[in-house]
Design goal:
Blueprint: E1 9-15, E2 18-23, E3 26-31, H1 32-78, E4 81-88, E5 93-100, E6 106-107, H2 108-111, E7 115-120, E8 123-127, E9 136-141, E10 150-151, E11 156-162, E12 170-177, E13 183-190
Antiparallel strand pairs: 1-2, 2-3, 4-5, 5-11, 6-10, 7-8, 7-12, 9-11, 12-13
Length: 192
């Protein structure tokens, strides 16, 4: 069995912007401007797809950054401490009691990263945590309710400041700043 086809294909240029295409013995006239528009349309679709993909990936990156920033701000807003009392217990030692009044717990390793400032109203200084030489400060839990070693909401810690000089008569300033940057201040006076 032999199959014969009368299919033929030819093309010829009839005038400056028309192409004649022969398919199956029928002539079809296609405008060159139509072909140009089709090519431009395909290029536009590809370019739009590339732009949309790039834009969406950038949008997702910005969205992730915003989620992280909001989460961090939420944590900072929920973390707060307050000095409830401070007093000298000897000529060179001051006790400070702080309560976690926020909604978040503070891991014990972050308590030591807090900043403590102490001194007279006109001349206070940064006190390093657990230093070898004076001045220095350290802390202990007064009431670790669940014994987990974390400073949970409504738990209190006691800070001991060891000062290298005898405390003189006057007003003294304490500032305790936690790792988030929030701080609490307290002033007390010594009158001898």
């Amino acid at each position: 069995m032999m199959i014969r086809s009368s299919f033929s294909c030819c093309s010829s240029l009839t005038d400056s912007n028309m192409i004649t295409v022969c398919v199956g013995g029928n002539d079809a006239v296609v405008s060159t401007s139509f072909i140009s528009e089709a090519i431009i349309m395909i290029a536009a679709i590809v370019a739009t797809s590339v732009f949309a993909t790039t834009f969406m990936s950038g949008l997702y990156a910005v969205s992730d950054a915003n989620k992280f920033a909001i989460s961090r701000m939420e944590h900072e807003l929920k973390t707060e401490v307050k000095i409830i009392f401070a007093a000298p217990v000897s000529e060179t030692v001051i006790k400070v009691w702080l309560k976690n009044v926020g909604q978040s717990d503070i891991p014990s390793e972050l308590i030591g990263l807090s900043e403590l400032f102490f001194g007279s109203k006109t001349s206070f200084q940064h006190i390093p945590y657990g230093g070898v030489s004076l001045p220095r400060w350290y802390y202990e839990f007064v009431n670790d309710v669940d014994d987990d070693g974390r400073w949970d909401p409504s738990e209190t810690i006691e800070i001991t400041i060891e000062w290298p000089y005898s405390l003189q008569k006057g007003d003294y300033f304490i500032r305790f700043a936690i790792y988030t940057g929030k701080y609490t201040d307290f002033m007390f006076s010594i009158s001898r």
